[in-house]
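It is worth pausing here to work through a concrete case rather than discussing structure prediction in the abstract. The textbook approach is simple: state the sequence, then state the predicted structure, then interpret. We follow exactly that order.
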Amino acid sequence: MQKISFLLLTFLLPCSVLAQETPTERQAARDVIAKLNSLEKSLDIPGLVAKLTAPDPERDKVVARAKHLMDSEMLALGDQITRDPEIGFKEERAVRVLTERLKQHGFEPEIGIAELRTAFIARYRRKVQVSDSGPHLGVIVEYDALRGTKGPFHGDQHSTQGPIGLAAAIAIAEYLDANKLPGTVTVFGTPGEEMMPPVAKAAMFDAGVFKGMDIIVRSHSTSATTRPAPGFGTCCLNIDGVKYTFSGAPAHQMTPWEGRNALEAVIHLFNNIDSVRSSIRPEARIQGVITEGGAAPNVVPDRTAADFYIRYPDEVYLRQVRQFVDEAAKAAALSTGTKVKIDNYGRLRDGISVATLAEPAFAYMKMYGATGVQPEPGKPQGFEETGTVSREIPGIGFSAKTSNAANHTYEMESDAVASVGHNGFVTDAQAMAALLFDAATRPDYLKQVKAEFAGIKTLFDEYQAALEKTYRVPSVPDPE
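Step two, the predicted structure:
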């Protein structure tokens, strides 16, 4: 989310470029900026990175195991899933092969978590009994394909996110067990990342699936090696997913006055939204498609529907944008004699990113051969898309370059089975294994991660409160 670009580490970029997306947000965040800069300076991130990435034979064993797993079986597994794509919540074959592989390596999977048929959780079965006091390490894996006009396709390379996570999880779990070290390793299979409803990770969080995790890691495809700045944000703005369904009455098109035209209603909805765009802050994104438009040209449509993603850089003003769209739908129904049902079926929100995870992860990706390295951190964003998990549990998404093409393209799918994809996938697995090793074996490091996360979470609350006071709703008098 561009509004949070001010939350870059002050030792990485000059203060002149530290800015939020909108003047209103910049004004509201002045005190938060100062406090966050102070927090980050106190952490000595360069010193932390140097300490973690120093030569360590034990870490190298875990990393080597992750690489061996990728080279010997996980890359082939990713290629298999790439060539057999399944859209969200229908990923039965992907779940089967992933959980079978986990079983082979000592994990105990449970499928059908949080009433989601293709969600799973898999815990490592310790051969040696040790204290279960922690650390508790979580790995998120995804496997859903995109919906395309030519059918499902892995244009976001979710097909190998699972195998990457499996390699890192197996490597660290085996190490903990072999060395009789405390800790747990849990793999979370999260379906339908590209779809809602439902919002899978949010549903799983609400069901308590992630409870007790100390950190969570995942990977995601990208056309450049990046990491987020510390702060709060999301990749694609805060989103309300809303479906507007209009109900009318059928009639012959020769006598349309005998019915009520739901198609006219949904068209009015789009026109009404366009008519109020000048009254909505320009950073808003209101994007919709008509999913039902009637059945036959000679029958007045008695049911139509439109699906919208309503977006804004922060969730506070998003509420005003959402009200505009809801009122536009109600007005469309009133003006056409129809009725409307409003279904807010999903929401994505800001998450929290921390430098104590992002910067070591970035250093490890470079150490293990990442290409297309972007030296400056990107915008802050949670490690998962819902903001639900990443507001409550610290984590990081690994993003070594895996494609020469943009996300959601057929070219990125092709790169998933090519050398650029394979090289990036192996890099992600190695870097993820290295960071999990640090979290598992350095209690002082994990304590520092949690302290930074708690500090930024407090600042996020302050920022939200400041925005609540800032966004003014104009007072509209009754006409005289």
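Step three, interpretation. The domain at 238-348 is CATH 3.30.70.360 (Alpha-Beta Plaits). Confidence is low (pLDDT under 50) at residues 1-20.
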